[in-house]
Specification:
- It is a single chain.
- By secondary structure, this protein is an alpha+beta fold.
- It has a single domain, classed as Immunoglobulin-like (Sandwich).
- The radius of gyration is 24 Å and the shape is flat.
Length: about 160
């Protein structure tokens, strides 16, 4: 089989087109703030606030607990707001920093905004008032004891 530079250039062009299309079709907030970001927040509805992104989350269910683990890189514990309901967990975090440095003949000004928001439906009803949290190295872990199953208590009452 002979190598043809024209075929190779077409293949490279198709690959570049695919990469650009994939890049620009990803979530608009990855490209920075602006109109696309606002549209993204409106499309997501109540599970997404404008200007924020979803933290990475893992939900595990054991016999007695539901454990929610969420990553908040660059966020301090005091900047995270967690609200636990019987059937869901709402997490919100934001940091706004402004830095101004002035030296002779030089001025630097910078801003940083980092925001996360997510509502996580839980696989079982939990005791929201008994939630325990730990936070270490940007990872929040919420341990939620499950509520007693109503049908299990009804079965024992019928016996």
């Amino acid at each position: 089989m002979d190598w043809n530079i024209i075929d190779e250039m077409r293949r490279m062009e198709e690959e570049m087109d695919r990469l650009f299309n994939t890049f620009f079709s990803q979530s608009p907030y990855q490209l920075g703030p602006g109109t696309a970001l606002q549209e993204q927040g409106q499309e997501q509805g109540k599970n997404q606030e404008v200007g924020t992104r979803d933290p990475l989350v893992d939900v595990q269910e054991t016999e007695t607990n539901v454990i929610v683990t969420a990553e908040f890189p660059g966020i301090e514990r005091d900047d995270i707001d967690v609200r636990v309901r019987d059937d869901r967990v709402e997490m919100k975090a934001q940091v706004k920093d402004e830095v101004r440095e002035e030296k002779e003949g030089f001025m630097a000004y910078g801003r940083r905004y980092l925001g996360f928001y997510r509502v996580i439906p839980l696989p079982a009803l939990v005791q929201s008032d008994a939630a325990r949290t730990t936070y270490k190295n940007g990872v929040l872990e919420i341990t939620l004891p499950k509520k007693e199953q109503l049908h299990a208590s009804q079965d024992t009452a019928a016996d």
